[in-house]
Every structure is written in C-alpha cells, then in structure tokens.
Amino acid sequence: MKLKARRNRPLTSVERQRQAIVALQQQLGVAEAQYLQVKQQKTQLQLEHGLLSGCCEALQLLQLQLQPAGGAHSHAAGMNDTACAAAAAQSISFQEEQAALLQQLQQLPLEDAERSSTPNTSSATETSLGGDPLDAASALPAQGGTSSSSGRQQQQQQQQQQQQQQQEAAPTPIAVAFPFALGQPPDASCTKAGHCASEVPPPELAHSCQVSAEAAAAGTATAMPTQAAAAAHQQCPSRPMVLLQYLLSLPVWPAAADMSLQQLSQCYCRCVEDVALALHLLAQPDRPGGCTAVTLLRVQTNIARFCWLLSSLLLLNRHELLATFASINCETLQPWLEPAPQQQQRQEWLMQQLQLTRQQQETIALGAGLFGRLLAAARQERQQLQLAVAGAAADQQQQQQQTHAAAAAAAATSCSAEGLQRLLGMEQLEQQLQRLQVLLRKEALLLMAACCHTAGCLSWEQLGLFAVLSMPPAGSLTGLVEAASSQVQEGQQQRAEQEWQRQQQRQQQRQQGRQPHRTVSGSGVSVSDS
C-alpha cells in the first residue's frame, strides 16, 4: 500500500528537474545528429563545387581550343574553316541561362585549403562577404582622408604586384601535376626541348607510345627538377580534375582521325609494357636513388600520352572506335566476353591490389554520384528527343507517302499552306537533330570528365598498376568506380550500425542510472530515487 501510494504521489521539484534534464538530453542528441548530417552535406556540396569548378575551367580551355578557325582540331579532322566554326558553335553553345549559371558557379566561394597554397586577402574578404569583389572592396573601413586612401591604394598596388610576381614565378596547377613534355597548349608554339606539339610522331608507329629513360630525363631537365616531379606526383590526386583540364588544353593528337583499331591496340599494349617495366624497376629495393624520379616520370608520361590519344579520339567523335576498343582483347583483337561473377571477382581483386585508401574511395564515390546525376539527366533528355525525332520522321514519311501522287502539284504550289507546313516540319526536325548531336557530345564529355576524375583520384603507380593488371582487355574505370562505391556504402552501413549500437548503450546506461533504489526496513518497503 505504501509503495502504491508513493507511486501515485505528485512529483517533487527534483524529479521534475531530472525529467526536464532527460528531455533536454534527448533534444540535444537529436540536434547533434542533425548538425552532423548538415555538416556532412555541406562538405559534400563543397567537394562537388570543386569538381564542377574544375569542369568549368576545362570547358573554358576547350572553348579556347575551338575558337580559332582552322586550328589544330580542324587540321586533324580535315575540316574547313566553316565546318570548324560550326562545330565550335555547336560544342560550346551555351544558352543565356547556362551562361549565367556558369558565371554564378565560378563566383561561388570555395572553402578548401587544397585549392590554393598561399592565402589571399581579397579572396578571403570575398568569401566572408559572399558577394562580388567590388562589394568586398566597398566594405573595407575608411580611415583618414585623402592621404590615407592614397596610402592604401599604394599598399594594394604593391600587394597586387607581389601576387602577380608570385603567380608568374610559381607553375600553374597543370604544369605542377604534369611536369613532362607532352606538348604545350596551342598558344605556345614549341616546348623548351625544341619539339612542337604538332610534330609528335604519328601514333600508328608502335614505338611512338614508348618513352625511353633518356627522353624522360631530358623532359625532366627541361620542365622541372626531379624532386619537383616526384612532389607533383603526390599533388596530382589532391586535384582530380586537373587531368581533364590538361587534356582539353592540348591540340588533337596527330593522325588520330585516321587511326584504326589495330593501331590503337598496338599503342596501348606498348604503353602497358613500358609501364610494367617501369613499375618493376620502382619495386627493386637496390635501385639507385636518382633513378626513382626518372622511372616515375616514365610511368607518368606513358599514361598521360595515351590519355591524350583517347581524349583526341573522343573530341573527333570516334565513339564507335572507343566502344569497340573497350570491349575487345587488346592482344588478339577478339571480343572479350567475361561472365558477371568473374568480372565482379576481378574488380574486387583489383581493388585489393591497388590498396585504395578510405579518402580515395570516398572521393571516387562522390564523383561517381555527381557525374551519374549529370549523365542521367543528359541521357533522359536524349532519349526523349530520340523518341520525338523518330515519331516526327515516321509522320513525315507517312505524309510523303500520302502526297506522293500529288508531288508535282505540291512542288508547283510550294508557297501554299501545306508546303509551308512541310518546310516548318523539316526545319524543326533539323533543329532536333542538331540538339541530339549536342546531347551526344555532352554525354561524351561527361563520361570523359568522370573517367578523368577517377584517374585523378589514383596515384601514378596505382593507375599504372591498374592498367597492367587489367590486361588483356583495356582497364575499365567503370568497374573500379562500382567496386569503390560499394565498399564506401558498406563502410557507411557499418559505421551507422556501430553508431546505433553506441546510442543504445548510452540509453541503457541512462535508464540504469535513473532506476530507483529499493530498501527494506522494519515498517515496509521504501523507494528512493538515485
């Protein structure tokens, strides 16, 4: 009876305070979970913004490549000036909304320490204000009169001169990540070694993809020291989109327009052989100290040269050749057929051999999600447009069959309503076909950007080892992305389960701490809260 009466009694102030504390702790736990989720989303958006900014810079380099009529692209493709200008207009034909979005994206602040090695006061002010640099300049406090303003202007001019000198002295990110001489952008006529970018030996020669140790040493001497080349290898994975920027800044590979499947396969096999030899030399424990940078440069040069060739084929719209090359045995030129279970086991084995870090896997999975969404939107629009084009073509063919008997009369009265409607339909169909070509090129560029992002997340040794272990077929980065994404999802599920178990343990501990203590006395059972 005493126990029942004690249960029915009103709560004391201490008990009410304890219940309020428990409720506040629960609310605090929910708020902490929401904060961690928002923080994770912010980090993901910042990383995606960095990738999109890199893609925008690469597209600007491609636009500079396509702007001059009769340039390297038109010379390699064998097109005239008018065709080159039309191709450039179709490839880089941004609408007004897309151009505004691109400008806004480039002006967004990016809070990433890896994007710049030296702090910049103007960029910091712009980031803090989140607006235009003019607004940041107008927000600076005014001290003194005319003399103080002139002094500040002199200081700003001196700072700008120092920053310009530092930028001119420091190599660009592309030069830092790629110190070897693959050829310069079209505005630079020749490299320091005296070889023009357009004078690279044609890739149909099998030895054109082989870079000897002497050539690697010469490229190191002309581009930058061997220590800087080794440091550049470490800096490349921190900016995965720099590979795309470099490839789009180069002219088209000579003779890429007329390359056959056999020549492409021979070039790839020779490249993989040279990379395998270089990796074997790097794995030797008793190698001389000075040979490490030269051998590493050999790996970099072979991989980047073949990436240059693939990007040239893609820009020349040789999609059938690339698709066939990705599905054959490079040694026998026969179709490579592998069951799905064996293919999955092969990808898992490759992941184990590459020994990707957790950061590499998460970066690859992040890029896969971003480019996957962009590709899905482009493919959906392309498929809808293909259905519309097919329906319009069928309707037009049916109308032609119906009016075939009166073709002469329709030609004589071309200004009639029926003839005008037919012309408008043909014009609309032509516009749809042009839009379809733009979407196909957009998909190709997005696929190229996704592959360059995945390759940029790997180190040069990992990328070379992936190419060697993937033989005889060409290494497919799609399988590597799927394997990395699945491992990231498994890791996230495991961490979520561990966090849930920890929360359950905390709740049990709190409940055990709030349980009342029962004591037995001569008068009965008394209950007291702990």
Automatic annotation (TrEMBL):
Any Gene Ontology biological process: positive regulation of transcription by RNA polymerase II
Biased composition (Low complexity): 153-167
GO molecular function: transcription coactivator activity
Record-linked InterPro entries: Mediator_comp_sub12
Superkingdom of the organism of origin: Eukaryota
Polar residues biased stretches: 116-128
The protein, known as: Uncharacterized protein
Species assigned in the record: Tetradesmus obliquus
